[in-house]
Predict the structure.
Amino acid sequence: MSVSAPLWTPAPERARQSQMYAFMSRVAAKYGLPAEWEALREWSIRERGPFWAELLDFVEIAPATPASAPCAGTGMLGTRWFPGMTLNYARHLLRFDDDADAILFEGETGRRDRLSRRQLRAEVARCAAALAAAGVRKGDRVAGFLPNVPETVIAMLGTASHGAIWSSCSPDFGVRGVLDRFGQIEPTVLVVTDGYTYGGKPFETLTRVREMLPQLPSVRQVVVVPYLAACTGAPPAALDGLRKAVLWREFLGPADSAPPPLPFTEVPFDHPLFIMYSSGTTGVPKCIVHGHGGTLLQHMKELMLHTDLRAGERLFYFTTCGWMMWNWLVSGLGAGAALVLYEGNPGHPTMDRLWALAEQTRMHVFGTSAKYLAACEKADLHPGRDHDLGALRCVCSTGSPLSSELFRWTYDRVKRDLQLASICGGTDIISCFILGNPLLPVYAGEIQCRGLGMDVQAWDEHGRPVTGTKGELVCCAPFPSQPVCFWNDPDGRKYRAAYFEHFPGREVWRHGDFIEITDAGGIVVYGRSDATLNPGGVRIGTAEI
């Protein structure tokens, strides 16, 4: 690959003004390196302690208590990151307190909402106080059965502020799918929606909630977000049959009331923040625990350096709350960006709905899937002609490999001067192994680079690194966004079996994707190498079929 001409090369001035360039220049000056991408990447792997420490400072994560060292221990299973540090993910995301936009929301029915940073912080304060009154404490689980609406962001941040653990499922999940997930983690508070719309049709959800509650005996409080009622103009649904149920606004208190104080529980770097779900080929989904520090630091690296996201910009990703891209999107608040949330069918009433949203919100980063871009191509859309995309500078695509044809379509039909960042990682690491880079050219069918600090290689079946041919995606050195653990896996056996036993005697992370690393350093992704399926980018195991 990389034999054809690039589809896009960043203008020299654009590259020099990027945050990746600023970080590279800083490291080069301090450590005596050439100010070149490959030198920076190799240093970030070779000197991982100094790299992650420099990154922590560059992205302005201010811990409550500093670490005694960037890392301690050895190996992918024995390394601990930033021992002694305390911090809080929510505090970093809510550090801006002014009237700039924090959330711009649109639902497919046309419902819109807008929250400033100050309004968001006030709503999180109300939610945190209500959760405390409901008995939520550090380490408790709060679960969301919710659409992609502002209330979901507020509930998650309120949960995280206490050091409690957030977990969510999309409301299109069936009862069994939800119980297979929430039944394992025993939430004390369940935040649900009364329903949602998709493709112009209403879908009620409280019937399913009533069916699942008897099998979730840990739930002490149910909070109902009346989203469907707001979309249809109907009065809120009756809450009978729901254990200690209350409507969202009643739970938080009036939006025009003075918000209570918002104290943050400072927690260790690896204290649980999220429980995510990833399915294998047998049994119920794995409950993957991710921590405050690793999630925050990795997301700031990917958003600020690899995507060049800046304060005041607008970040969008089409996602549900059951996919890790929702967590990644929300972390954009930590970079000072405003989140653009869309709930509903991206092709309703017409396939260009999201491009119209990009124009309306003056979107800077547009995140989607290869499946959506393929649907746009099939519909013969011309977004760059039909919409003002003047603010748009980056399109991210994930979920499945982006074909060379779709790379070309994006540059032909969306915008010529655009960083097209195909990205690849997953729920397992709540982040990316390979992704975009504002310093490098874009070639058809290739992802631009391996992530800083990620020792990603392609290995053949004998465990030998290969270049220019297909191999297993492996990561050969520890990184902060590895899972803290699997829930209910006290001896770590399930965690080790999931990632570290494919190459006996070699403690490397085997991810389950086939990739090719080109001679020039780009990456071609060929798809899954295991039995996991990937409809629409959300991985499910054959055990769930």
User: Anything to note?
Assistant: The longest strand covers residues 509-517. The CA atoms of residues 141 and 187 lie 4 Å apart.
